[in-house]
Design a protein that fits this description.
By secondary structure, this protein is of the alpha/beta class. The chain is built from 13 helices and 10 strands. The chain has helices spanning about 25-40, 65-75, 90-105, 125-130, 145-150, 155-165, 170-190, 215-220, 250-260, 285-295, 310-320, 335, 340-360, and strands at about 5-10, 15, 50-55, 80-85, 110-120, 240-250, 265-275, 305, 365-370, 375-380. Strands 1, 2, 3, 4, 5, 6, 7, 8, 9 and 10 form a 10-stranded mixed β-sheet that branches.
Length: about 375
């Protein structure tokens, strides 16, 4: 089978809700990383076959195929098309998978895969609630087929995260200790300049706004639970954020013809789904299957990025896989750095690639929990 290579990866800083990037139009957020990718990569943008972006809540400034709009807003060639996809939190990781599949199939040679989300401008779940003005409710209510299968029980990521904490016996204190470590790692990575090469500064912002230097277990202990009688608080959940990120994926032919230097080879791509009510457990079976298909063991992987939608998600994954916690989210995760939904998949992959290079490791694995109980897995090999 033909190979797919990662040539470069870049991201904006991750802005906090209402922070430095809140007023940036979503198309301009996306355009910024596209311009940075072209500038850094030194390739002819006219040779790009397609632009694939992940984005959720595609209304307002994110409507109208944001992948295409962002490319044009960057002043890049008119003839290059774009497409926007939604696999919930894993949308831009799926964009990488589609890019790799296009290259591996021989139907494309050069594809940009990325994502964008301005959650300050367009609040989370806007696309699910906008239908109320037309008399419609959420995707899960009033559907005869859905109700016949799952009943009228609540479909909520917050409920799912609580269910996971209960099933795997994860205490509030354990989650808060994990969250504190996420902030500590993110602050350390920032101070040591580990993110500097991957970030394209924007609007005067050159570092992520999310990591909290002054947080503590004492402060976390004083927060109110997100649900009555629950274990989770805002401190152990991902932050609402604004950002964009992008990768350049190339075929062997493009590498040879354009003189590109690959940084990594895409070793494995897959996606698997689990119970949609549990919703956030997908990374566990998805990781197992990815390792089985590649013949790799958990110990063969030098670095992991497991999206910190909630601390309970990662802690349950750690218990089930037996992965070394020191190799998981080494520079902090979404609890500290934020979770700009449509952009998170390629934000994680950008950070993972740079950290794998810094460590001199061989393999890195990324997985994310996604709405509907889904989970993508990508394994890359450093070159």
């Amino acid at each position: 089978m033909a190979e797919a290579y990662i040539i470069d990866a870049v991201r904006t800083p991750v802005g906090r809700r209402g922070g430095a990037l809140a007023a940036v139009h979503s198309a301009d957020l996306g355009a910024h990383v596209l311009s940075a990718l072209v500038d850094r990569g030194g390739f002819d943008p006219a040779r790009v076959d397609d632009v694939i972006f992940g984005c959720n809540d595609t209304v307002g400034s994110q409507a109208g195929d944001i992948a295409r709009t962002a490319w044009l807003a960057a002043g890049l060639p008119d003839h290059v098309p774009g497409v926007t996809i939604d696999r919930q939190c894993g949308s831009s990781q799926q964009a990488v998978h589609f890019a790799a599949q296009g290259v591996m199939s021989g139907t494309a040679d050069l594809i940009v895969a990325g994502g964008v989300q301005n959650m300050s401008a367009i609040p989370i779940s806007t696309s699910m609630t906008v239908g109320e003005q037309f008399g419609f409710t959420t995707p899960f209510a009033e559907s005869e087929g859905w109700t016949a299968r799952y009943g009228d029980q609540e479909v909520s990521q917050f409920r799912s995260a609580e269910m996971i904490a209960e099933k795997w016996g994860i205490t509030r204190e354990e989650m808060e200790a994990y969250a504190l470590e996420s902030h500590r790692r993110a602050v350390t990575a920032t101070d040591k300049g580990r993110f500097a090469k991957e970030i394209a500064p924007l609007r005067g912002l050159s570092a992520d706004e999310g990591p909290r230097r002054d947080t503590s277990l004492e402060k976390m202990a004083g927060l109110k639970a997100l649900r009555e009688g629950g274990r989770l608080t805002a401190a152990v959940a991902s932050q609402i954020s604004d950002a964009a990120s992008a990768l350049l994926v190339a075929s062997e032919r493009a590498v040879a013809e354009l003189g590109l230097t690959p940084r990594a080879r895409i070793h494995h791509i897959s996606v698997l789904a689990d119970d949609p009510i549990w919703m956030l457990t997908g990374p566990i079976p998805a990781t197992r299957r990815a390792l089985e298909r590649t013949g790799l063991s958990i110990g063969d992987i030098d670095l992991f990025e497991v999206n910190e939608a909630f601390a309970s998600v990662v802690l349950a994954w750690l218990k089930e896989t037996g992965a070394d916690p020191e190799r998981v989210n080494a520079n902090g995760g979404a609890i500290a750095l934020g979770h700009p939904i449509g952009a998170t998949g390629t934000r994680l992959m950008t950070t993972m690639l740079h950290e794998l290079e810094r460590r001199g490791g061989r393999y890195a694995l990324q997985t994310m929990c996604e709405g509907g109980g889904q989970a993508n897995v990508t394994i890359i090999e450093r070159l």
